[in-house]
Amino acid sequence: MASPVKVGVIGCGAQGTNHLNVIKELGMEMAVVSAFCDLSPERLQNAKELWPQAEAANDFKAMLAPGELDLVIVATMPNTHMQMALAALEAGADVLCEKPFMRNAEEAETVLETAERLGRQVQLGTNMRYMATSGYLHDLVASGEIGTPVYSKVWGCHVNPPWWGPHYYLSSSAGGVLASTLIHALDLAIWVGGSPNPVSVSASMGRLFPGKRGPLASPEIRERFNVEDLFMALVRFDDGSTCVLEGNWCDDRPPPHCFEMVTTKGKINSEPFIVTVDESGEVVDKTPKLTESSGWGESIRNQDADIIQSLKTGSSWTMQDSRQLLNLQRLIDGCYESARNEREIVL
Ligand SMILES: NC(=O)c1ccc[n+]([C@@H]2O[C@H](COP(=O)([O-])OP(=O)(O)OC[C@H]3O[C@@H](n4cnc5c(N)ncnc54)[C@H](O)[C@@H]3O)[C@@H](O)[C@H]2O)c1
Prior knowledge:
By secondary structure, the chain is of the alpha/beta class. 37% of the residues lie in helices and 24% in strands. The chain folds into 2 domains: 5-124, 3-Layer(aba) Sandwich (Rossmann fold); 129-294 and 327-346, Dihydrodipicolinate Reductase, domain 2. A 9-stranded mixed beta sheet has the order 14-13-12-11-7-10-9-8-15. It is globular. The site of nicotinamide-adenine-dinucleotide has 26 residues, from helix 1.
């Protein structure tokens, strides 16, 4: 493709604005935002300041109607992801959809089957895969140099509920700390570990809000907050490895999204970034010095650059496949089912 990739962004809130900014940084020869959409006039105005030449719409179907977009980024809350992703695919675009992918595996299957039928691509915004440390750890495990994964501990803990978007209302968010926060490091740990299939999960969840952090929130948030802000689970995989998950929205210690993994020959930590190997019984630090930064903003930029570059060169998106996407969605569904019913779920 000689011309820039034409991008449409649905939802110009916190994350939509990140994408609008990142695409600007990539440069007009790579991509242009030709259209964006939001229900809020104020957010449309903010987007207009970043992309004055783009069409502004308050109806995503009207935005998609001309059928001229190469890529649509869905950055609304999860209750609208399926209808927007399906409409974008039908309009001839490939789709980058924010996490959590869909509200359940049934919706995820519908979207993935539609993409397959139409010959289009779908990727989930699990941007942590694009951190330099993530790529290094993924390739290290894949090489077999550090043995095979045995056990991992994954956590996603914010100091507060995510006040920037309505992630704490079940009707729009499809879940609390697991669906909104913990999902990032969970996806990353599974991917680094070679993407085994999850086979069972035993989970529990609870809520500390408004007892914790409640005084910091507006009365409207306090009244309607109805998701879990505490989550724990044990997951078993078909390669024999296990994973312990922990998430909350009232943690006092950074970093917020991390995992550590014990392997048959060593141990890796995503943040702080540490690689140790057992050499003749001694624990040896093998952490490399990486020149590329692994910040959150860079990972979103790398993600958008990767998929836009693939569209420009006509190559396929390779970071995820449908099996991984469906496995993640089924695992999230299984986590919630297990926690609600207080028993182990076989996936
Ligand atoms: N990967 C990341 O780093 C990251 C960070 C934050 C949020 N997210 C994800 O991005 C998504 C959005 O979260 P957010 O925090 O930006 O929420 P947000 O509330 O700030 O933004 C969502 C926007 O969608 C708009 N919207 C809602 N319904 C719409 C419709 N029918 N048509 C057009 N616009 C509509 C809202 O007006 C709002 O401006 C969620 O899926 C969230 O999990 C990802």
